[in-house]
Specification:
heterodimer; A: 201 residues; mainly alpha; two-stranded antiparallel ribbon; elongated; B: mainly alpha; 64% helix; disordered N terminus
């Protein structure tokens, strides 16, 4: 126990503060979930509408069905590794590093995927555009995944560094691990939902 | 509501973190860093790009605006906390107390201050500024419409005026009650020492603050031609000013999510001992339901703006039918947010009036449970009615019937709110002070706003009335006539607690009557014009609508003078008003048990709640 997090301006116990932080993060997950729901709605709405037969115009290349899932693998591994660390405290430091690396590598892979999208076409003036509503939705989903990867990596890096510091309140840190677990679980679920949507061409 | 002595809170060290970066940052450094980020992004992205291509222009402008917001937050010190968490060196006690503004006087209002009372005042000033800007635009609109053939402004400028007036007022109205009173008063009402997340509380305000210059920049970029609804594909094709609109909404959605999460968590997790759910003041319940409703609602608005931004910058086609997009997608995403947003605005205003009515009739709130059922019913149904805004768009005509039913059904929980207020007034002896007058004004205005809403929810009637001034008058009756009236009552009611002074009563009465009479003249005239068929959002009109428009404009000037009077009353009273006693209204909620200035942590002793807050006419316990 150190002086670093011993004090809290509300004078509340670490237990109370921890519970409160978890509730706050879960409410933010509700907001993020609403955003993801909106993306799913966009995907299936435009797909079923197929305006001007331009959901997937003829001759446009697509990603494979597996591409969405491979993009989500980093998120899934991170959630599982974090869960393993929560269940076995001896693994916590290692699991934190695995979580961070999984998210970092996942972010790099997602970036690579976004940089090599097969459906970008060019107009008469040579300017690029996303050809078809499928392409538009794909880039949006990939962007959301990227946001989750980067935010997750920030949290994971914090947990790695804090795991090596001894001058922190252990009770509050325990709650923060659980709170981070809520976030990692959610972004994995979101990645899977996006992958499922992306498999509907 | 009774408070009993409990263990005193611990003494705190005097904050003096001399070597900390926190002490050197303020609004000025925020503006400087924000401007550097903004201009740096602008010039870096311009380099090597073909700026005759609208996609590139939009890309550069949108990125610059968002980087302004980010840079400002860096410059004011908003990211110090997260960074310190990242490296495992949490803010010390001294730094936290410094951030809370302890002993910093007026300077703390220009810093990243975490004290909820400071944030409440920041919101109050921000809201009044936005209402002033939006109101000035409204006066220009009404002046242009005073007579047919007026050329005060060009049609393009008129379009921009309508759109920017709309979005400025919508943002102002969303925060008009939950911003100032939800931050300043609500934590004290529930017996908390601060909000659950004080740093995020400051963040919600300063993020919103960064949106204001972004929105204002739309004027210098050619304005917006779309109205506040920013319908696609028009918004896809609009000029550079549209980027300001998109960036504003994206920034605002972040602020709303953070504020909503913070207020909801505070109420759920930080109520005083003994404050069971049936003892929570009704304003707190209303504000919480409102912000909790905003948490899932606003991200879809943000998504719609991001999709529009992507169409405009990287040439996706969400709303471009040539590449498989559809304007209906935008309309759905927008109104899935848009209709709940009406209740996000309305509920806190009504809840403030429900808080006020028992105090001034000295009777318990009539059926507290019915009030909560009304709020919950409205919130629940509000997410099932969005397509009534799209009856005439051609989207899914087979769903018009179901959406008509859900929309009309919402009048049932709304009726409960009327019942609660009328029941509270019934056989009471009202103390006719200014806040109480607003309760009556609300009942009149909201009755008109509600009944005309039933007409508009009806598909055949909407077929004739949609897109007309009738719709404009209807939603002004609900948002201004009801929600703003509630917020104005809240301002007068809580003014003594927020400023330590009483609001100038005479000026307040003059402002009240000028606003309320003017408001009714303005919008009853507009109902006439709408029923005759005058379309909204058009800069000119036929002579047949001349009289109703002249009446409306006369009413608008009355409202304008009333608002200026109210502003004078607020500013004058804040500086020179009569010193307020601790509990000028004899109310029973917790905020009236603390002195002014309210101590940093609100209570010297932790309150314990032993009764409900509306026990008027009962023996004290």
């Amino acid at each position: 126990m150190s002086t670093d997090t011993e004090f809290h301006i509300h004078h509340d116990s670490a237990e109370k503060v921890g519970r409160r932080e978890r509730l706050g993060v879960r409410l933010l997950i509700v907001a993020d979930g609403s955003f993801v729901f909106g993306m799913m709605f966009s995907w299936f709405y435009l797909r079923n509408l197929n305006e001007n037969n331009a959901w997937l115009p003829k001759g446009v290349h697509t990603f494979t069905t597996a591409s969405g899932y491979t993009a989500a693998i980093g998120l899934i591994i991170a959630a599982l590794a974090h869960r393993a660390g929560e269940m076995n405290h001896g693994l916590r430091r290692v699991s934190s590093i695995v979580v961070f690396l999984a998210l970092l590598i996942g972010a790099v892979y997602q970036w690579h995927q976004m940089a090599h999208m097969p459906f970008i076409a060019h107009d008469d003036n040579g300017r690029p555009f996303y050809n078809g509503a499928y392409a538009s939705n794909w880039v949006l989903v990939a962007g959301a995944n990227m946001f989750h990867y980067l935010l997750g990596a920030f949290v994971a890096l914090g947990l790695v560094i804090r795991g090596y510091r001894t001058k922190l309140d252990p009770v509050l840190e325990e709650w923060r691990q659980r709170t981070a677990g809520s976030w990692f679980t959610w972004i994995a679920i979101s990645g899977i939902l996006c992958a499922i949507a992306a498999s509907f061409k | 509501m009774t408070t009993l002595s409990h263990a005193p809170v611990s003494t705190r060290p005097i904050p003096n973190p001399k070597r900390s970066l926190i002490t050197r940052l303020n609004m000025g450094t925020g503006i400087i860093v924000g401007a550097i980020f903004c201009w740096g992004t602008y010039y870096a992205m311009r380099a090597g790009r073909d700026m005759t291509d609208s996609h590139n222009v939009n890309k550069v402008l949108l990125a610059s605006m968002l980087m302004w917001s980010f840079g400002f937050l860096v410059g004011i010190g908003a990211l110090i906390g997260p960074f310190r968490w990242l490296i495992g060196k949490d803010l010390t006690a001294e730094e936290q107390l410094y951030l809370a503004g302890d002993g910093q006087g007026v300077k703390r209002y220009f810093k990243y201050c975490t004290d909820h009372k400071v944030v409440g005042i920041q919101y109050l000033v921000g809201v009044m500024t936005m209402l002033g800007v939006g109101g000035t635009m409204a006066m220009m609109i009404r002046t242009n419409l005073a007579t047919p053939g007026s050329h005060l402004v060009t049609p393009n400028v008129y379009n921009s005026l309508v759109g920017l007036h709309g979005i400025t007022m919508i943002i102002a109205m969303i925060i008009v009650a939950t911003g100032p009173f939800g931050n300043y008063i609500m934590p004290i009402m529930i017996g908390a020492r601060d909000m659950a997340f004080p740093r995020l509380n400051a963040l919600s305000w300063w993020v919103l603050f960064t949106a204001i210059p972004v929105l204002c920049s739309a004027w210098f970029l050619g304005g917006i031609p779309t109205g506040w609804t920013a319908y696609a594909p028009l918004s896809d094709q609009a000029g550079p000013g549209m980027n300001a609109f998109l960036a504003t909404i994206i920034i605002f959605a972040v602020s709303t999510a953070v504020a909503g999460m913070n207020i909801t968590t505070t109420v759920i997790a930080m109520r005083a001992k003994g404050m069971k759910w049936n003892r929570v003041p009704i304003f707190v319940v209303g504000a919480t339901i409102s912000v909790a409703l905003a948490i899932p609602a606003f991200p879809t608005f943000m998504l719609a703006m991001i999709q529009t931004g992507m169409d405009r910058t990287i040439a996706t086609g969400f709303y471009d039918a040539n590449v498989g997009g559809s304007g209906w997608l935008y309309a759905n995403l927008f109104w899935i947010m848009g209709h709940p947003e009406v209740y996000v605005i309305l509920i806190p205003g009504v809840a403030a009036l429900m808080e006020i009515a028992p105090v001034f009739v000295r009777k318990p709130l009539f059926s507290y449970n019915a009030a909560i059922a009304g709020f919950a019913g409205i919130a629940g149904l509000s997410v099932l009615v969005w397509a009534h805004h799209m009856y005439m768009s051609g989207w899914m005509p087979s769903l018009n019937g179901p959406f008509m039913i859900t929309t009309e059904f919402i009048s049932v929980p709304t009726g409960l709110l009327f019942l609660v207020l009328v029941g509270t007034l019934w056989r009471g002896r009202p103390w006719m002070k200014l806040p109480m007058l607003s309760v009556y004004a609300f009942l009149w205005n909201f009755l008109i706003g509600g009944i005309t809403g039933v007409y508009l929810s009806d598909v055949p009637a909407d077929n004739y009335l949609h897109g007309s001034m009738f719709v404009t008058a209807h939603f002004h009756y609900t948002l201004m006539g009801a929600a703003f009236t509630g917020a104005m009552a809240g301002l007068v009611y809580w003014f003594p607690k927020m400023t330590g002074r009483m609001l100038n009563e005479r000026a307040g009465y003059i402002a009240f009557w000028l606003i309320q009479i003017g408001f009714n003249v303005l919008f009853l005239g507009m109902f006439m014009a709408g029923a005759q068929g005058q379309p909204r959002r058009v800069a000119d009109y036929a002579f047949v609508y001349e009289h109703s428009n002249m009446i409306s404009t006369a009413g608008a000037y009355s409202v304008g003078i009333g608002m200026i009077t109210l502003l004078w009353a607020v500013v004058h009273s804040w500086r020179n008003g009569k010193i307020a006693p601790m509990n000028p209204w004899g109310a029973k909620t917790l905020e009236w048990t603390v002195p002014y200035p309210v101590p940093l942590e609100n209570f010297d002793v932790e309150p314990i709640i032993t009764s409900d807050p509306y026990g008027y006419g009962k023996a004290a316990n």
